[in-house]
């Protein structure tokens, strides 16, 4: 995947996740997406980076949501 298309696709990941997790600040979502994206910087196969980032960030946000829900009990 071309670097510009990859960055654009990762940006769309953040947008989709912001819609899916409206209770989470867009800034936090952007930070988590960026962190996950950076963690994959050395991955040799680039075609699946946006999918991998979305999967990992969705899991992180779901876990955070559950943990914050547990904290309020």
From TrEMBL:
The lineage of its organism: Bacteria, Bacillati, Actinomycetota, Actinomycetes, Micrococcales. NCBIfam families: MSMEG_6209_Nter (NF046112). This is CUE domain-containing protein. Gene3D superfamilies: Corynebacterium glutamicum thioredoxin-dependent arsenate reductase, N-terminal domain.
């Amino acid at each position: 995947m071309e670097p510009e298309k990859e960055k654009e696709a990762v940006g769309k990941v953040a947008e989709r996740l912001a819609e899916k997790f409206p209770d989470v600040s867009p800034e936090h979502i952007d930070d988590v997406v960026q962190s996950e994206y950076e963690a994959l910087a050395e991955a040799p196969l680039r075609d699946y980076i946006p999918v991998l980032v979305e999967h990992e960030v969705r899991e992180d946000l779901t876990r955070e949501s559950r943990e914050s829900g547990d904290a309020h009990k």
